[in-house]
Structures are given as structure tokens and as C-alpha cells.
Amino acid sequence: MRQVKLGLWGADVSEVCFGSLAISPLQGRVTEAEGISVLRYALEQGVNWIDTAEIYDNYGQIAEAIKGHQDARIVSKSYSVTAEEMRLSIEKARTALKRDTLDFFLLHEQESALTLKGHLGAWEELLRAKEKGIVRWIGISTHAVAGVRAGALLPGLDVIHPILNYQGLGIIDGTLGEMLDAISFAADLGIGIYAMKVFGGGHLASDPEKAVAFVRGVSGVQSMALGMSSQEEVDYNLLLLADKEVPEELQKKVKHRQRKLYIADWCQGCGLCLEACPQGALSIEENISVVDAKACVLCGYCGRVCPHFCLKIV
């Protein structure tokens, strides 16, 4: 597994970061035990860092999976707004992950300088945690061009986790070209960049070679988080990144797995899912939620807020 340096002053990590959303309760693709098994397998193959978030609700799963792999680095993220909320989020992660020091902690889904200003208290608490050695590296995740540009100018920021794929799917405020320019701007400042939604939430899964090659070819992007929920997906992705031929049988098992957002017919049309969707992919028609499949990137955030458990990735 190729090792990379995350920015000028960041960690040495594997080119692939294990995106644990795919094994979390938020998506429900696999059982907790199955997720632990897949994550352990990835660690054994040389993947040495894991992306999670408070919203994924899988700290316990990760803590179990990394037993025997204490050198694995973990990224977590929080929507915290105030300093107190961030303190609680950090302590929750430290306790549940059983780590005195967290490797990475990010503000989750920042959109612009305005949203960062609204989260200033939380950011200042992250800076204090970094000064105390409780967190090693801090940053933001974002689906927005403006988020990348504003984040790059934050004092003390080490890493940005932006949405990036060859069609620009999921970018909420601009074009792919604008996102590439913003990433270049951040990278020139020495900031570490690892990409998300490389396969566009599954929309680009029919040509994974192209999807991976595109992100690898973007100057300034050192690594990418790939969501994996089976050993076959781990093998497939690692072969791609090793520039090795993927056996036909493995291609059949992985390449053509299509997923979608399922909305149950008992949906009450309350609209909470619309507020939770960063892509604006949901709407209410005839008192029921409907999804624009082309806009949906299968993040599963809508399912978390549904009081009637109507939405899930299948």
C-alpha cells in the first residue's frame, strides 16, 4: 500500500482511507460484526487510517476493529457549533474510541466562510485541543467550493476533506473546475487534502478505474476515502490502486453492485429528511418524500433524522 504525506506537516498515511460510513448503522449495509470483520481485513491489507464521524454512530465498532492495530489513525467529525458542544464531541470520541489523543478531528460539512463563522466557538475549541495535544490535526469536511476556500484560510487548519469526482457530482455551489481551483489553492498553502465521494455515491461505479485515476491525477490531493462494506470491495479497490488487473470474477461481485435510496410507503411527508440532505435531492410530492436519484450521493444522512425509519440505502 502506497504511503503518502497528508500536506506539508501532516501524517504519513496510506493512499486509501477506509470510509466507515459504509459499515455504520447510518447506512445499514452490514451488521456490526460484519463491519468489524471488513475493517480488520482492510487494516491487515495495509490501509492504516479510518474516516468516521459522530453522526455515523460507530465508534464502538471501530474501537473493536482496531484491537491489535493501535497504530491505525482515525478521523472523526462533528457538527458542533459552540465550544461546549465541541468539548463534549471530543470527549465522546476519546472515550468511545479508547484513545487519550485523537489523530484527526474535523468540523463536519462546512459550506462557506459564513458557516465557519457560525461555528467559530467550536473551531476555537479545536485549536485549544490541538494546543493541549488532545487532537493532533484539525480541519473541515465540505461539499462546497466556498467551503474549501474558506477552510484553507482558517488559522491552524491542517486538513480538508472535500467532495471530488470526475463529474463533479455532489458539489453544492459550483463546477468541477471551480472545485479543482479551490483544492489547488488549499494545497499550495500546504494543507492536506483527502477526497470523498470518488465514485459519486455509486453513480460512477460502472467505471471505477476512471474514477480512481481522475482523483489520483489531481495535483494537491494526497489520498481518498473509499467506502467499503465487504472484503471483495477492499480487494477490488486495492488492486485498482496498485495498478493490477482485477480478476473477472471479482469484477462481477463488486463492479455492478448498484445501490439506491429506498423510501418506504409509510412515509408521513414530515420533511425532516429534506432539511438533512446536503444535496437537495429530496422533495415532497403528494405528502410523501421522493428522491432525485441523479442528485443523491447515498450518504444516508436523511435516514438518521427520519422518525419513522422510512429511508435507507439498499
TrEMBL record:
Residues 258-287, 290-314 form the 4Fe-4S ferredoxin-type domain. SUPFAM superfamilies: 4Fe-4S ferredoxins, NAD(P)-linked oxidoreductase. The keyword Protein transport does not apply. The keyword Metal-binding applies. Keywords: Iron, Iron-sulfur, Metal-binding. PROSITE patterns: 4FE4S_FER_1 (PS00198), 4FE4S_FER_2 (PS51379). InterPro entries: 4Fe4S_Fe-S-bd, 4Fe4S_Fe_S_CS, AKR, AKR2_Oxidoreductase, NAD(P)_OxRdtase_dom_sf, NADP_OxRdtase_dom. Signal peptide: none annotated. One of its GO terms (molecular function) is iron-sulfur cluster binding. It comes from the Bacteria. It holds the Pfam family Aldo_ket_red. This is Predicted oxidoreductase of the aldo/keto reductase family. It comes from Desulfosporosinus lacus DSM 15449.
